[in-house]
Write a structure and sequence with these properties.
Length: 425
């Protein structure tokens, strides 16, 4: 991403900094966290520094490099990418320039082979990626227009595992499909330290987020169980402090995997009974022994998102409403509905009544009867203003940062009257 815009799908906001503290410092002999976009890992080997993620470009990279040189004067041996979400390795060019200025050999940049395909897709869809960034991080509409998305392609890729041999501290990079299909964990077998990256989050796994492509919960569960099989005694999370102690780490990894498997089974069993996704969302009762855990808090992801992703994977895009199978243009449909309403004041009054009674979501459904219509009819404009206010109320009660952001961003767009250009009416 552009050097002066330090945001991305997984900015520090992803972990909700109000609840997850940042972590920097030394974990063990020769193993450090320098900050970055999440917890960027620095490993000292006899052949030089192995760096997992270089962080965002701009101010933060300077601090990371200063911290590195306070720790060691060794050359950078290799730079590895934890996964292909934007922001985590915007600063690669700065790190390489730092190596060149010191007269050190240029280190390889290493990633899983799937990352190349992901970044090719991001290049193709830069416009929509910028728009999603604006929505998800509550940026002013159009702020990202023209901003280049920085994607420094790796110079070396691997498929399953890659070992950086070292007599003192061997480093293993292991494919760990989870939040992305290019995610990588770093394993230090001599010290039994695991860098979990995007596979190890301090909140419920980020599956089914509203603006992104499908993510497989069972594949993520497989990865967590594979990580547990390594028997780590310390695991570095993507955000926040590490988890220490083999027993505690096993509980975190295996209970998270079990929760994802439970969700898959619960959703599929209801799908087999003919239930639609909204019916399933309201029918599920999450077992507390799996979901009432501190690491399952919906700070960024949300159980509802996972349910929707499982349903979407198995059933396609249709919501089972025949009206939506071959819909009219939104403006035409909105105008037709508006023409059938005899008492628009009653619609607005009922929406406000529901909102005042705490039924804000029901109020949204009612106000849409007017708010989705095109044009500048006074009743429609009033309905949009009410909808924007309802979005603000829903944001206050949303637990997921993503849900909060989408309510806030949508409310701002609707309230400014620019909804005709965005499809957010």
């Amino acid at each position: 991403m552009a050097n002066d815009v330090e945001v991305g799908e997984t900015d520090a906001a992803k972990a909700n900094p109000a609840t997850v503290p940042s972590f920097t410092g030394t974990l063990a002999d020769g193993v450090h966290v320098l900050g970055g976009m999440g917890n960027a890992l620095t490993v000292e080997t006899s052949g030089g520094i192995v760096q997992m993620d270089t962080g965002p470009a701009g101010r933060r990279v300077e601090k990371m490099l200063e911290s590195l040189r306070e720790l060691s004067d060794a050359p950078v041996r290799a730079i590895a990418y934890s996964h292909g979400h934007l922001g985590y390795n915007d600063a690669v060019e700065s790190w390489l320039a730092h190596c060149e200025q010191r007269g050190d050999p240029v280190p390889p940049t290493i990633a899983h082979e799937n990352l190349v395909r992901r970044w090719q897709r991001y290049t193709e869809t830069q416009g929509v990626q910028r728009y999603f960034i604006e929505l998800q991080f509550r940026l002013p509409r159009g702020m990202m227009s023209g901003q280049p998305l920085t994607m420094p392609m790796p110079t070396q890729t691997f498929k399953d595992t890659l070992t950086l041999h070292d007599p003192v501290r061997p480093v293993q990079l292991i494919w760990a499909p989870s939040e992305t299909d290019d995610a990588v964990v770093l394993w230090l077998p001599e010290q039994r330290i695991l860098y979990g990256g995007a596979a190890a989050t301090p909140s419920i796994p980020n599956i089914g987020t509203p603006l992104r492509s499908l993510r497989d919960p069972i594949r993520w569960a497989d990865t967590l169980e594979g990580m547990a099989a390594l028997k780590p005694v310390l695991i570095v999370m993507e955000f926040g402090p590490p988890i220490e102690g083999e027993e505690r780490i096993q509980e975190y990894l295996l209970k998270t995997a079990a929760a994802l498997r439970w969700l898959r089974e619960a959703v599929v069993s209801r799908m087999n009974l003919g239930m639609g996704v909204v019916e399933i969302l309201h029918d599920l009762e999450y077992p507390p022994e799996l979901f009432d855990q501190p690491w399952m808090t919906p700070m960024y992801g949300h159980p509802d998102y996972i349910v929707r992703d499982i349903f979407r994977k198995e059933t396609g895009w249709w919501d089972r409403n025949p009206t939506s199978l071959h819909p009219a243009h939104p403006d035409s449909a909105g105008a037709a509905v508006l023409s059938a309403i005899a008492d628009r004041g009653a619609v607005l009054a009922r929406a406000r009544e529901l909102a005042d009674a705490g039924e804000v979501q029901l109020a949204m459904h009612v106000v849409d009867v007017l708010a989705l219509a095109p044009g500048d009819d006074p009743d429609v404009v009033e309905a949009r203003a009410l909808k924007a206010a309802l979005c603000e109320k829903l944001a206050l009660g949303a637990r997921s940062f993503v849900s909060q952001s989408l309510y806030v961003s949508s409310g701002q767009i609707i309230g400014k009257g620019t909804d005709l250009d965005t499809g957010l009416r």
